[in-house]
Specification:
The complex is a heterotetramer, with 2 copies of chain A and 2 copies of chain B.
Chain A (H helix, E strand, L loop, with lengths): L1 E4 L5 H8 L6 E8 L3 E2 L2 E10 L1 H18 L4 E7 L1 E4 L3 E9 L2 H18 L2 E7 L4 E4 L5 H4 L4 H8 L2
Parallel strand pairs in A: 1-5
Antiparallel strand pairs in A: 2-7, 3-4, 4-6, 4-8, 5-7, 8-9
Helix pairs in contact in A: 2-3
Chain B lengths: L1 E6 L1 H7 L3 E5 L6 H11 L11 E4 L2 E2 L12 E4 L6
Parallel strand pairs in B: 1-5
Antiparallel strand pairs in B: 1-2, 3-4, 3-5
Classes of the chains: A alpha+beta, B alpha+beta.
Chain lengths: ~160, ~80, ~160, ~80
């Protein structure tokens, strides 16, 4: 299950969607809007998405996590638009027969999502300043369409 | 050929537009589009190295050849999650 | 928040209890009743607890995870009694400013819980057979009351 | 002194009882209790090495000295979660 939405994320529904009698372990990750980053005091966040490409990227991630890990079910929901403090920007849920694979798959999903899915975060600080957050380009996702697969095949 | 480049996030704000139209020779590459975009919008120059390109919803390298029917986008490194 | 209960676990309430404006990451782990383990076909599970000691052990884990990791909030709920296929036996939720610590803390909590908290699982198979599951004794938790701390201090 | 040992899981089932009372000398250790328990319930012998002991809700080593007011428990390795 893949979702890109401007509405609040229902993480219970996402979690229920991955539960299964075949799975003994479920891992849910929530990314939420944090108030402080060092001295910077966030008032609210704005997420912008390239919706068509973001949905395609999320679908690819859902397929890839099943190939890389022993995953029973996987689900991802990402919100965009304006988010207030404490609200959920992203939720990732995976189920697996055993817990080690569930943790590894959940962590890989959120790490890779943050590298590859075309969504951007703009900080609105309490002093009125704004800032687009742009990490360094990650060659694995950005250099060519096959590089993601190539990098993954080289990983342990 | 005319290629419309979709812009996002800081690239959109710097350009002051959600897209920009480039006039490129046939068989132009992503690198050619990048050069034409910077001529058209010098304000993006500071981000030249960081800007990423996508063609038809997939990341594209500099040597990717463009066709007039391609959906092309240009944006800074992503920061979702 | 620590809970040892014979009622179904409300993991949404557990998750809400750890959400915070100070945290940018929440990790929830659910351990659920799996139908198949290799060829063995489970019909239902029975969990037995030593309640007084189990509650004391869960409280100690909640304190210890805060000392070992950058954790904003932590919560654990373990169920006992009869559980049907797919039901939740244990839920662990942690929040942290950043996701890496949230994953590490959640994984440490469930791993250590399974080693140390006096609760036992009896398999009831579809062929009518029953089996208490008893892993090898884990010296870290069992040899003396200080050994858990000792082992943890030696860990990286 | 009389020490009541609480039993759990397979230990409880093998004993057929939720607890067993041992008559131990003053200053007896967990090791002494273990020996007395196995005399009283030989069926537990196969699990001698695996059985864990707790005193007052904490795991206890063999050399732990018991007092008449201690809450003592004996059980197999745990398997919750």
């Amino acid at each position: 299950m893949i979702e890109l939405t401007q509405q609040p994320i229902d993480y219970s529904a996402l979690t229920e969607s991955v539960r299964s009698h075949q799975a003994g372990a479920v891992v849910l990750f929530l990314g939420t809007v944090r108030e402080f980053t060092g001295e910077a005091h966030t008032a609210w966040l704005e997420y912008e998405a390239y919706p068509e490409m973001a949905v395609a990227a999320l679908q690819r991630l859902e397929g890839e996590v099943r190939r890389r890990f022993t995953v029973t079910e996987a689900a991802i929901s990402h919100r965009y638009g304006r988010l207030e403090l404490g609200e959920i920007a992203v939720a990732v849920a995976v189920s697996s027969p055993h817990r080690s694979q569930a943790f590894d798959a959940g962590r890989w999903l959120i790490d890779t999502l943050k590298e590859c899915v075309p969504i951007w975060k703009k900080e609105h600080y309490t002093d009125g300043a704004t800032e687009w957050l742009h990490p360094e380009a990650t060659p694995g996702c950005s250099q060519d369409p096959d590089s993601e697969t190539t990098r993954e095949e080289r990983s342990p | 050929m005319k290629i419309t480049v979709l812009l996002f996030a800081a690239a959109r704000e710097i350009a002051g537009a959600e897209s920009v139209e480039l006039d490129l020779p046939l068989e132009a590459s992503v690198a050619d589009a990048r050069a034409a975009l910077l001529l058209s919008l010098p304000g993006l120059a500071l981000r030249t190295n960081a800007l990423l390109w996508a063609v038809n919803n997939e990341y594209a390298a500099d040597d990717r050849i463009l066709h007039s029917t391609d959906v092309v986008a240009c944006f800074p490194p992503v920061s979702g999650g």
